[in-house]
Amino acid sequence: MRALGKELKMGGQAVIEGVMMRSEDSWAVAVRAPSGEIVVRKQPWRSIGSRIKILKLPVLRGAVILIETLVLGVKALNFSAEIASAEDQPRTGEKPGKLPEQDTQKEGFWKAFALGGTVVFSLLVGLAVFYYLPLWLTETLGIADPFLFNAVDGALRIAVFLTYLIIIAQWKDIQRVFEYHGAEHQTIAAYERRLTLDWENIRKLSRFHPRCGTSFVLVLLIISIFIFMLFGKPADWGQRFARMLAIPLIGGISYELIKLGDRYPENLLTRIMVAPGLWLQRITTRRPDSSQVEVAAAALNAALDNEGSSREEALALSASHG
């Protein structure tokens, strides 16, 4: 693991039977394969904000990170789905057959194409369910006052989001993902406290974290109410589309508020601000077991280990159910 002389904020995401972790210059995803092994994939990572300085400005950086997080999240989910569902895994130390260069290029193209299609589809579904559905429901109520219209629209949007979380939380497979979500939070918390990443240290820590994506989404939904009030009541599809264009701005503002809450955890105002998100994590996180924490620690260690980060790595680590 990298020396802890310099404070480094880690980000992460639960995936299917695994965890993705992201550091300053790399990201890694660790997945528990059906064989019991932990398979780790690591790639170099540079935010576009580190190359285009203006995108590091407050608010703008949040909008960029929102998009980058979505893309990396889909990549990690695709990889975890491949590993978790594979029935014929190569044994430890066994190298898979090498494809011809032309076939490899074709495979890379179609994987990139599929990834782009998945991101676009996810965005469209998200907009339909969490943006247009509440807006349509509010319009059916016939509310004339712009202030009240946007307040009801925002309340319905939050209600749809909460309903969605409560429904999916009943599924057994999603409950497993939420356990890995808890493992991700607890492992990052141990790292931030400079503790050894072992079960005895990690299991004692809280599964709630102020920088969680769940908290971010909730803050985004609340901020959207006030931003959309500036647009008044939409009268046509052009005005509805204009509201949609404000979503990156809302994401950027929400990101800055989350950062404030993380930077000043003891401040009364920031504690009030992050409290709803921490409460919501009671739904989206569950207590992990030692094997799930082991996967999260493997992902974090891989994301911090920069040796050989110029190429993608696939490592098989022995399972240890402590």
Automatic annotation (TrEMBL):
Keywords: Membrane, Transmembrane, Transmembrane helix
Pfam family, one: DUF1385
Superkingdom, taxonomy of origin: Bacteria
Positions of transmembrane segments: 112-134, 154-171, 212-231, 237-258
PANTHER family associated with the record: MEMBRANE PROTEIN-RELATED (PTHR42867)
UniProt-recorded name of the protein: DUF1385 domain-containing protein
